[in-house]
Amino acid sequence: MINAMNPIHGIVLRRLSVAWIALSLLFGGVAYFVELEKIDEFVVALARSESERFNSLGIPLVAPADEASAFKMQEKAREFAKEHFVVIEIYDRHRKKLVEAVNPEHEAIERELSKRGHSFPPDDRQRYDRLNILDTTLVQVLVPLHGPDLKITGYFEGVFVVDKATLAKLRADLMHALTITLAAVLLTTVALYPVILSLNRKVLDFSLKVVEGNVEMASVLGAAIAKRDSDTNAHNFRVTLYAIALGEKIGIDPMTMRALILGAFLHDVGKIGISDNILLKPGKLTEDEFAVMRTHVLLGVDILDKSEWLKAALDVVGNHHEKFDGSGYPKGISGGSIPLNARIFAIVDVFDALASARPYKEPMSCEAALAIIEKDSGTHFDPKLVIAFRSLARDLHARFSAAPEDELRSLLGEKAQHYFIAASQLKPV
């Protein structure tokens, strides 16, 4: 059993880290807006209080009848502006401006404000807007003024500047909230880590059993196919080990390797549909019989196409009789149009067939078999893959050609399990 938990640790840590960052940003953003709302609530409460105080002065909210009345209203507005606001505007119940008072310290802000236009809420409710003008945080509020009969007598509008002390408190409160949030999320993440690892371990154990079952199923199916025209499973095991070695040599990824292993196991699955009088005929096949034999490729494709898991083998099953120069079957494709796994398998399949004993022939030497492979480089086989295989062939032949079937099965089981698990870990969860 290979140790598959090491990559899981990394995956879990990465995902928990991402979750920690995401949650921290989320809760930090919430904390930020909560603090901003506190400022808004403060300003709105202040505006309401000031509007009520202005209302209590008993100044009629109508156009002043004389200069003295106008002066009195203007002076009172200026007093209020100096205390808390950038600008104050008083409107009558018809929404006509009666007076405006600007804090001299903020005339530049007022000029920018005047460019923004003005509107009243349609429902006569109090309204506030948060603004940023000239790098200054402002809150603009509009409060309806009511008489003793609770009818609207006018409107009080003010623009409050959020002073530096308030902003400093906001930042301090925000950092405090963020610190608490980050710490809470971090502690939760740390607490969840062993729990998630434990759950992943259980999932992995189950996955390993599934992988073992799948490998066994492919092996059994491959063995059943081999039994139809051979006395041993050794060819299937050897050719798959050869294919894995060549795939490793050229650096194919785990997903492609899994497909190669399945394809090598099941390359002749279509022979199930070929009658015994043709499949097991001791002599040379007639032209018509060979035409029937060639149908095993399409029969194999049709069989595997019904299984989502076994579809990965289709590249090999459907194309392992294609030739690099386009003279193969069933599609007559050539060069890079032939799937890589099929080009890999074509080499190792022919090599093992040449170098293995069969009821009707003696085995060739490794050198003789390799010489035929090299002779057909560029016609039957991919030249680049032939060069790569040539560097492996002698060692592979020495190691596997005479190895017992049980040893081959065990070695192949380890390889298959490794790549099937590696491939599964590449899939998004």
Secondary structure: helix percent: 55-70%
**Order of helix and strand elements from N to C terminus:** HHEEHEEEHHHHHHHHHHH
Q: What is the CATH top level name of the largest domain? A: Mainly Alpha
Give the beta-strand count. Answer: 5
Structure characterization notes:
There is one protein chain. The chain is of the alpha+beta class. It folds into three domains: 1-56 and 164-206; 61-162, 2-Layer Sandwich (Beta-Lactamase), CATH 3.30.450; 230-426, Orthogonal Bundle (Hypothetical protein af1432), CATH 1.10.3210. It is 62% helix and 10% strand. The chain has 14 helices and five strands. A five-stranded antiparallel β-sheet has the order 2-1-5-4-3. Helix 11 crosses helix 12 (366-375). The longest helix has 66 residues, at 164-229. The radius of gyration is 41 Å and the shape is rod-shaped.
Topology readout:
Elements: H1 5-56, H2 67-84, E1 85-92, E2 97-102, H3 107-114, E3 127-133, E4 136-146, E5 152-161, H4 164-229, H5 234-250, H6 254-266, H7 276-279, H8 287-294, H9 296-304, H10 314-319, H11 340-355, H12 366-375, H13 383-400, H14 405-426
Antiparallel strand pairs: 1-2, 1-5, 3-4, 4-5
